[in-house]
């Protein structure tokens, strides 16, 4: 099944409408603490590798999302640039979540091979953010 994608302006419209959508931030906890969408929930799809450098898949990702949300909850999955959240949305859909979309561009924006922004994310559109401990 193909993952439906929305842009940050559409995501904000859903959140502002209080229509039941939740913003699921799948970035690492460190990224989340540095800045996030107000009201977002953090469940990392990748976690620090306990055996060395880098990140590895969070083996409990789907279970952790299922602990927080019913499978029919409207979920907007997002990350920093859009890659991790697209994969995370696909994982959730494959496990029976029926109302998941991916926010294209993520928190910052999609970049090309040269590092130039090709699709602005949440912050580059000037949408509201917060940081620090909740």
Task: Name a few traits of the molecule.
single chain, 4 helices, 26% helix, 134 residues, 9 strands, five-stranded parallel β-sheet, two-stranded antiparallel ribbon, alpha/beta, Oxidized Rhodanese, domain 1
How would you describe this structure to a colleague?
- The chain is of the alpha/beta class and 134 residues long.
- The chain is built from 4 helices and 9 strands; from the N terminus they run βαβαβββαβαβββ.
- The chain has helices spanning 8-16, 29-34, 61-68, 83-94; strands at 4-6, 22-25, 41-42, 46-48, 55-57, 75-78, 100-103, 109-111, 117-120.
- The radius of gyration is 14 Å and the shape is globular.
- The N and C termini lie far apart (35 Å).
Name given to the CATH architecture: 3-Layer(aba) Sandwich
Shape call: globular
Tell me, rounded to a whole number, the average pLDDT. 96
Strand content: 15-25%
The N- and C-terminal alpha carbons lie at a distance of: 35 Å
């Amino acid at each position: 099944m193909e993952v439906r994608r929305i842009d940050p302006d559409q995501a904000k419209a859903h959140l502002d409408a209080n229509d039941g959508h939740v913003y699921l931030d799948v970035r690492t906890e460190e990224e989340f603490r540095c800045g996030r969408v107000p009201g977002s929930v953090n469940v990392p799809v990748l976690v620090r590798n306990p055996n060395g450098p880098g990140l590895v898949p969070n083996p409990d990702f789907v279970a952790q999302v299922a602990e927080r949300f019913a499978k029919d909850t409207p979920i907007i999955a997002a990350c920093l640039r859009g890659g991790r959240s697209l994969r995370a949305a696909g994982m959730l859909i494959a496990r029976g979540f029926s109302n998941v979309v991916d926010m294209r561009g993520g928190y910052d924006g999609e970049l090309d091979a040269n590092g130039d922004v090709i699709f602005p994310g949440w912050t580059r559109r000037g949408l509201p953010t917060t940081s620090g401990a909740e």
